[in-house]
């Protein structure tokens, strides 16, 4: 039983201290703190501003049906929280992608084609070919290709 517990705790320690788990835990903690900031923004700033037009705070909007309170104002506040959170996350990801691409400002150039299609049989052939190996049709050879072959 003691060996089982030692093995169990060593496996748990290896799992808990892996980099991915620690990164996830840090992300969750930062996300929770960030959500508190967004909730404060919506509840303390945006809802009262929107309430100026609706003549009430959104979070207090309630519909009563047969003695049951339906708090649609709280739901609208949660939707606003969600939209703001998604927008901010979008901006963060977009910014991180821009930073990631900053170092690689040179776009990878497309490699020059090495094959072409035969205009007679439509099979792919080498770009330097003067005759199609499939249908034996004679092909036009570009001048640059012919010069390159002559130089080789």
The count of β-strands is 4
The order of strands across the largest sheet is 1-2
Work out the radius of gyration: 33 Å
Largest sheet: 2 strands, antiparallel
Number of helices: 4
Question: What proportion of the residues is helical, as a percent range?
Answer: 55-70%
Class by helix and strand content?
mainly alpha
Shape: flat
Can you write the helix and strand succession as a string? HHEEHEEH
Mean pLDDT: 80
Rounded to the nearest angstrom, the distance between the terminal CA atoms is 77 Å
Structural commentary:
With 152 residues, the protein is mainly α. It contains four helices and four strands. The strands form two sheets. The chain has a two-stranded antiparallel sheet. The chain has a two-stranded antiparallel sheet with strand order 3-4. Helix 2 packs across helix 3. It is flat, with a radius of gyration of 33 Å. The mean pLDDT is 80.
Summarize the structure.
The chain is mostly helical and 152 residues long.
Write the SSE topology.
Layout: H1 2-16, H2 19-54, E1 63-65, E2 68-70, H3 72-102, E3 115-117, E4 124-126, H4 143-151
Helix pairs in contact: 2-3
List keywords for this structure.
4 helices; 152 residues; flat; mainly alpha
